[in-house]
Amino acid sequence: MIYVYDIETGTSELVTRSYHDPLNACKGYNPSISHDGRYIAFHSDESGLVESDTNGKTDVFVYDRVNKTMQLASLSGSGEQAMVPVGLRPSVQMAASLPSSRGK
């Protein structure tokens, strides 16, 4: 189970919750949190975190604390569920923001 503690509010939130039953905790391992605390990446061999996880293997997930959504992140370039290498440690990295060239 993975929980995140919010130091501003003094509350804990269950990250690895089942989509079938939000009160049911699922296993999760090696969490990584974004610098702003919004996203948490981790891996899990549970199939109940998202409905689309059907491969029965360990996968990488990303939880968005603002939108309260869970996403299966271990997908191939074609969108199929990919095999996660043993020993993988997920990490959250923010993409660089590029200035918009619209309207110029």
Task: Offer a concise description of the structure.
This protein has 104 residues and is mostly beta strands. The protein is 0% helix and 28% strand.
Your description of this structure?
It is built from no helices and six strands. Strand 5 (59-64) and strand 6 form a beta hairpin. Mean pLDDT is 81; it is low at 95-104. By secondary structure, the chain is mainly β. It has a domain at 3-72. It is globular, with a radius of gyration of 15 Å. A four-stranded antiparallel β-sheet has the order 3-4-5-6, with no helix packed on it.
Strand order of the largest sheet: 3-4-5-6
Shape label: globular
What sequence of helices (H) and strands (E) makes up the elements? Answer: EEEEEE
Query: Major sheet, described briefly?
Result: 4 strands, antiparallel
Give the beta-strand count. Answer: 6
Question: CA-to-CA gap between the ends?
Answer: 49 Å
